[in-house]
Amino acid sequence: MKQIDINCDMGEGIGNEDSLLPFISSANIACGYHAGDEDKMRRIIDLCLQYDVAIGAHPSFPDKENFGRIAMKLPAGEIQSIVFSQLNLLNNLAIAAGGKLHHVKPHGALYNMAAKDPLLARVIADAVKAFDSSLIYYGLSGSLMLDEAKKDGLQIAHEVFADRTYQPDGSLTPRNTPGALLTNAEEVVLQVMQMISSDSVQAISGEEISIKADTICIHGDGLHAVEFARMINDRLHLEGIQIRKIERVQATL
Predict the structure, then answer these.
(1) pLDDT higher than threshold 80 for residue 250
(2) Using CA atoms, how far apart are residues 124 and 118, in angstroms rounded to an integer?
């Protein structure tokens, strides 16, 4: 049976986690730098354990004012430190609740910059590796961030987006550009099915581009997040596609 992971960004102040978790297999939990706090993290970790959803860290630039979506130029050592600190915080909370970290997915500007900047991508990958080399690294499908993580020996997961449009080069359409977000549930489901079934997606220009889909992201802060999650879930079950978290691959010596 074909399988796919569905991940969702959580703990960002929307409060819809109870409604989303039954439809997903992996959660990316804000670690307090762009959104969230320890109480929210604990609550979502408990829900993840209840629904058997993989617990992931969603580290960001330290920028709550702009929700972590503004590019920041920081020294490599500082970026490593902020990523490591966020992983450490969420990991400690997960262990205290009887769980453990499964993956890491950078947030916002940190994610988008790393997708195109190999030096930044390597800095983040090094921080993840130094913290726990068994964590799965979620990143933009086909991007430099995954290339660098793979070079660092990390297990990677190619991420695609249910509710975002794509540029011809495979990057996401910037949020401040018209048409960046998909708001129609039927269009979202069609895009997801195309990415899973044909390893491709229609760019905003109209051309078909190749894409690899290991995990599908639904943005938890989207207005239609719960509706999208439910409809994607229903369609995948109808097609006989199992929704399942990505299994860690044991490293070989």
Answers:
(1) no
(2) 10
**Residue 251 confidence (pLDDT) above 90:** no
In 10 A of CB 192, how many CB atoms?
Answer: 26
Cα 151 from Cα 141, distance rounded (Å): 16
Within a 10 A sphere around the Cβ of 251, how many other Cβ atoms?
Answer: 10
pLDDT at residue 62 is higher than 60: yes
Whether the predicted pLDDT of 176 surpasses 50? yes
Q: Is 119 exposed, middle or buried (0-12, 13-18, 19+ CB in 10 A)?
A: exposed
Question: What is the number of other CB atoms lying within 10 angstroms of the CB of residue 77?
Answer: 10
Q: 233 and 13 in contact (C-beta within 8 Å)?
A: no
The CATH code that applies to domain 3-243 is 3.20.20.370
Annotate the chain with three-state secondary structure.
CCEEEEEEEECCCCCCHHHHHHHCCEEEEECCCCCCCHHHHHHHHHHHHHHCCEEEEECCCCCCCCCCCCCCCCCHHHHHHHHHHHHHHHHHHHHHCCCCEEEECCCHHHHHHHCCCHHHHHHHHHHHHHHCCCCEEEEECCCHHHHHHHHCCCEEEEEEECCECECCCCCECCCCCCCCECCCHHHHHHHHHHHHHHCEEECCCCCEEECCCCEEEECCCCCCHHHHHHHHHHHHHHCCCEECCCCCCCCCC
Q: How far apart are CA 128 and CA 134, in angstroms?
A: 9
Distance between CA atoms of 174 and 164, rounded to whole angstroms?
9
pLDDT digits (tens, 9 = 90+) for 129-154: 999 999 999 999 999 999 999 999 99
